[in-house]
Amino acid sequence: MKYCSTRGGVQGLSFVDSLLTGLAPDGGLLVPETLPDVSGRLQAWRGLGFVELAQEVIALFVDDIERETLDALIADAYSTFSHEDVVGIETLGDVTLVELFHGPTLAFKDVALQLLGRLFKHVLAERGERLNILGATSGDTGSAAIAGVRGQDNIDIFVLYPEGKVSDLQELQMTTVPDDNVHCVAVKGSFDDCQTLMKSVFGDLAFKAQHQLGAVNSVNWARVMAQIVYYGYASLRAESAPAFCVPTGNFGNVFAAYLARRMGFPIGRLLIATNANDILARFFATGEYSRGEVHFTLSPAMDIQIASNFERFLFYHFDKDADRLAAFMQEFAETGRASIGAPPGDDEFLATSVDTDETLAAIRAVHERFGYVLDPHTAVGYAAAQKLASEVSGPLVCIATAHPAKFPDAVRQALPDVDVRHPTLDALAGQAVRKQLIEADIDAVKSLISGTLS
Hints:
Layout: E1 3-5, H1 15-21, E2 30-32, H2 42-45, H3 50-59, H4 67-78, E3 88-92, E4 95-99, H5 109-127, E5 131-136, H6 140-149, E6 155-162, H7 168-175, E7 182-188, H8 191-203, H9 205-210, E8 213-214, H10 221-236, E9 243-247, H11 252-263, E10 270-274, H12 279-286, E11 288-290, H13 310-317, H14 322-335, E12 337-339, E13 349-353, H15 356-370, H16 376-388, E14 396-400, H17 408-414, H18 423-426, E15 436-439, H19 442-453
Parallel strand pairs: 4-14, 5-6, 5-8, 6-7, 7-15, 9-10, 9-14, 10-13
Antiparallel strand pairs: 1-2, 3-4, 11-12
Helix pairs in contact: 3-4, 3-10, 4-5, 5-6, 5-10, 6-7, 10-11, 15-16, 15-17
């Protein structure tokens, strides 16, 4: 399996090289040159547990790590989850929830980042190299990435996050980690500012090479690869091809569902659920991708106006025309808007936005009817699923992205008398905090990295 850039400047990369490269040198995102067709394997895979299915699916994308070693890395990654089969499946009336929050940091990012950390450790040890990771987070990626690599002697990790715009518990999950290789950087700005800074630093190829920088954000192909598995897993447990409703901001989670569908897993339509930051909902309604003002909501991980993984979808939508894709992205970078001329016009996606009142109403309704507490991101997905249910056929599956205890303020607004807790989060109280505060400036980021590593 070889990998290429969406912008055409990189081809023929091995998996291991793509893992360490992260963002492609031409500014594009790495994707497989071909997608495997799994349609002939589905019957044999239906009885597999999550770990076994992960071993089968991921091996299709990784042919430069010995299969026995790869299987062991996968099994070890998911041994850190508290659920007996890694992910949970709950039925709430006509909606099935796929719970992805049973990992160490109680968010879906653990599914990919527990594996990514082990892949990094193995590859770097094999090569006798080290890596300095630079990531940006709107909340959950940071703590999950830190949990995947903390304490490793061949990796330092720098996590940029928007000061005051992640939940208190999300910040504590990052800033209370005491390991010397962890560096939490609060940026005076939005998540989009953090993501732009990260990409700008990676765009300085000399600085990237000098400081051996790599990525853990979903710009790294391995993140998306690992997420394909749970869509396949859930689809094989449904009576017929399910529609998946995915709360999303950066498009990485729903893009993994899109790839699982293209690979032949029995998946119906994909429902994109956004909050007030509705750039994706507007695109699928109009064909125009236009940046708006960032709205800060109860679902902070989705407070994004530039969906970095959207480029990967456009690459496939443009039939892998890298020149057309590059022109589109350049126009967007220069003007804040770009258009494909009309709505995509296919039967794969539906999209809608969900406001704060609808989010709170979903949390209340589900608790009243089922005694189940949704986190605000999952509530956005659940509300969107209810809105769009009449437009899909087959089972309706919603992705549950985080444990509700991570967002006590949002839950309290909806359910004042309900106290949702988790011992992992309770243990953070009173711990020492380490972070650095910087301006949203590329020179400030570079100076911090250089000064720390010197």
